[in-house]
C-alpha cells in the first residue's frame, strides 16, 4: 500500500491521480488536509500540486514539508477557473482531484473510493460527498449518475436552480484529464466555474457520478459577511451563465414586507424558546430527585402520529 504525497515526487513516476489544491493564507487548514492525504491507503501512485495565491503565511512551507510541488498564481491574475487550469496543466495524473485547502478528506480509503468510479469510461467527474451537509447525505447516500439523453433533457434539468447543488464542486471532486482537455474551466467567472464545466461536459455525452464512498468536510468557518460575499459571487456568476435573475423586484418587495411583519413574532419565539430551555436546565436538580421514567418517549409517539397523519 502506498501512502503520503512524497510517493510520486520523482520525475519517473506516473501518478494515477494528481491532487490539485488551491490555497491562499490557509496554513492551518492546509496542514490538516495534507495530513489526511498522507494517511491514505491505496495501491496506486499519486501526487500533490499546490496552486498558491501568493500566501503570506506558512502555506508554501507546509506544502513543501509534505512533499507537494508548489506553483504560484498572482493575486492580480487569480480566478478560480484560472487556478484550476494552471494546476491541472502542471499535474501529471490521468485523473485530477480538485481540492480546496479548507476541504478535509475523511478516512484512509478516501482516494480509493474517489477513483473507483472511473473504471466506467463514460465518467467525466466524480462528486465527493459533503459529510457536514444533512441535505446532501439524505439525497446522495447512494451512488447516483447524472447523464442526459438529449440537449432538451439537459435544458429541462438545468431550467431551475437544483442542478447547481447537484453538480460537482471544485472544493472536492475528481475529474478525468481527457474531459478537461476537451473542456477547460472558464477563467472569467467569479464563481460557479465548476458547475459550468460540469454542464459543458455533460452536454458532450459524459456522465457524472456522486460518490458516497468519498466524503469530506469543510474546516473553514465562514462569518456572516464572508458567507454573504460568497453567496453573492455564486449568484452573480450563475446569472452570467443562465441570464436568470435570482430574485424579482416583486418578490423582493414581498419578502421585505414579510420580514418586517415577522420580526416581532421571531423575537417572541426566541424569548419563549430561551426561557423554556433555561427552565429545563435550572430544574434538572429538582427533577433528578424523582425516579427515572420507564417506558417509551413521547417524542416518538408524536413522530408516529405525524407519519400516520401525512399518509407516509
Most strands sheet: 9 strands, mixed
* CATH topology-level fold name of the largest domain: Spore Coat Polysaccharide Biosynthesis Protein SpsA, Chain A
Name the helix and strand elements from N-terminus to C-terminus, one letter apiece. EHEHEHEEHEHEHHEHHEHHHH
CATH architecture classification name of the largest domain: Alpha-Beta Complex
Count of domain modules: 2
Distance between the termini: 47 Å
Beta-strand share of residues:
15-25%
Radius of gyration: 24 Å
Class by alpha and beta content: alpha/beta
Low-confidence stretches are 1-12
User: How many DSSP H or I helices?
Assistant: 13
CATH C-level label of the largest domain: Alpha Beta
User: Per the principal axes of the C-alpha atoms, what is the gross shape?
Assistant: globular
Fraction of helical residues: 40-55%
CATH homologous superfamily heading of the largest domain: Spore Coat Polysaccharide Biosynthesis Protein SpsA, Chain A
Could you tell me the mean pLDDT? 88
How many β-strand stretches? 9
Question: How do the strands and helices of this protein lay out in sequence?
Answer:
Layout: E1 17-23, H1 27-38, E2 46-52, H2 59-65, E3 69-72, H3 80-90, E4 95-100, E5 103-105, H4 110-115, E6 123-130, H5 134-139, E7 144-146, H6 151-157, H7 162-166, E8 172-176, H8 177-182, H9 193-203, E9 207-218, H10 224-242, H11 249-282, H12 284-287, H13 298-310
Parallel strand pairs: 1-2, 1-4, 2-3, 6-9
Antiparallel strand pairs: 4-8, 5-9, 6-8, 7-9
Helix pairs in contact: 1-2
Amino acid at each position: 500500500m502506498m501512502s503520503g504525497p512524497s510517493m510520486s515526487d520523482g520525475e519517473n513516476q506516473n501518478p494515477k491521480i494528481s491532487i490539485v489544491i488551491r490555497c491562499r493564507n490557509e496554513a492551518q487548514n492546509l496542514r490538516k488536509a495534507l495530513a489526511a492525504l498522507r494517511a491514505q491507503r491505496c495501491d496506486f501512485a499519486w501526487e500533490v500540486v499546490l496552486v498558491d495565491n501568493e500566501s503570506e503565511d506558512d502555506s508554501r512551507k507546509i506544502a513543501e514539508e509534505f512533499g507537494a510541488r508548489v506553483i504560484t498564481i498572482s493575486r492580480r491574475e487569480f480566478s478560480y477557473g484560472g487556478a484550476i487550469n494552471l494546476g491541472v496543466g502542471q499535474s501529471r495524473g490521468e485523473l485530477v482531484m480538485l481540492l480546496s485547502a479548507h476541504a478535509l478528506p475523511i478516512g484512509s480509503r478516501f482516494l480509493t473510493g474517489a477513483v473507483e468510479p472511473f473504471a466506467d469510461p463514460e465518467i467525466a467527474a466524480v462528486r465527493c460527498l459533503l459529510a457536514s451537509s444533512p441535505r446532501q447525505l439524505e439525497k446522495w447516500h447512494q451512488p447516483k449518475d447524472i447523464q442526459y439523453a438529449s440537449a432538451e433533457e439537459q435544458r429541462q434539468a438545468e431550467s431551475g436552480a437544483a442542478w447547481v447543488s447537484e453538480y460537482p464542486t471544485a472544493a472536492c471532486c475528481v475529474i478525468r484529464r481527457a474531459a478537461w482537455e476537451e473542456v477547460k474551466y472558464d477563467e472569467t467567472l467569479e464563481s460557479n466555474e465548476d458547475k459550468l464545466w460540469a454542464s459543458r461536459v455533460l452536454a458532450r455525452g459524459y456522465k457524472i457520478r456522486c460518490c458516497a464512498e468519498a466524503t469530506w468536510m469543510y474546516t473553514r468557518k465562514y462569518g456572516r459577511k464572508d458567507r454573504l460575499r460568497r453567496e453573492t459571487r455564486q449568484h452573480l456568476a450563475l446569472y452570467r451563465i443562465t441570464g436568470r435573475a435570482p430574485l424579482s423586484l416583486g418578490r423582493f418587495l414581498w419578502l421585505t414586507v414579510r420580514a418586517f411583519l415577522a420580526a416581532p413574532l421571531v423575537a417572541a419565539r426566541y424569548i419563549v424558546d430561551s426561557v423554556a430551555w433555561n427552565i429545563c436546565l435550572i430544574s434538572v436538580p429538582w427533577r433528578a430527585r424523582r425516579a427515572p421514567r420507564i417506558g417509551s418517549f413521547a417524542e416518538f409517539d408524536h413522530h408516529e402520529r405525524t407519519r400516520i397523519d401525512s399518509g407516509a
